[in-house]
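Let's practice the habit of predicting before peeking. Look at the sequence and jot down your guess about where helices and strands might fall. Then scroll down.
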Amino acid sequence: MSAKSFDAIVIGAGQAGTPLAGRLNAAGMSVALIERKLVGGTCVNTGCIPTKTMVASAYAAHLARRAADYGVTLGGPVGVDYKAIKARKDKVSGASRAGLETWIAGMEKCTLYRGHARFVTANTVRVGAELLTAPKIFLNTGGRASVPDLPGVHDIPYLTNSSMMDLDVLPSHLIVVGGSYISLEFAQMFRRFGSQVTVIEKAPRLTGREDEDTSAAILSILENEGIAVHVGAGDISFAKQGGDIAVTFSAGEPAAVGSHVLLALGRVPNTDDLGLDKAGVAVDQRGFVVVDDQ
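Done guessing? Here is the structure:
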């Protein structure tokens, strides 16, 4: 089978790949844009746009509960319709994705291929039954949630930041394993929706990249909203307990038992299944492309 030729191939129609394809197309280049899942990548589908849409709903619920502090009287307890919150999130995210797809379709010299790209040679990739070749190939494959091989983790139905977006029921008790930005955003969001929330972090403090004063302030905010936080958790393991999930986090301490577990333990790059070795591209132990400065 002969390969279809392009001036450039962009693998991944995410936050960088789609604008790059647009710029190349505007410069008169023919472009093959390849996406194996959803156009827009993390930001449009499971990150920035959908989570901030949900954060807005959580903030509205939080303010409504504090209405009396502002001299506003409500007719009764503040309720949350989680299915309606998810539907609103899906609508906002879907509209953004549809807008990108329309933009791509309007690019004169850009062809969108839906499928998994794998390198055949340094300048040729296969997408399904199609062979595509170009002198310039750009990787915009993004990342996914890291799932460390913790004891019992594969014996439970855990959630990640992506699968959390598909959840259509409000957890009665959400246990969040991880104490950085993504984990704490979800923790506060679901506490404001009405879930009981527990955060478990193996480091001695939350948001370890921030200074100690900032970490302490974040901890205070979360605890004041009723979120249980455990830091210094050196022995994290998971087990089913009836219809719930038990998370052991420290020797001598009782396990946290919740209805749902969210793993927010960092990100790994989507480079392990591209056949980069056939393109002569090296990656380090974490999966990041090794750049030769020479």
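How did you do? The two ends are 36 Å apart (CA to CA).
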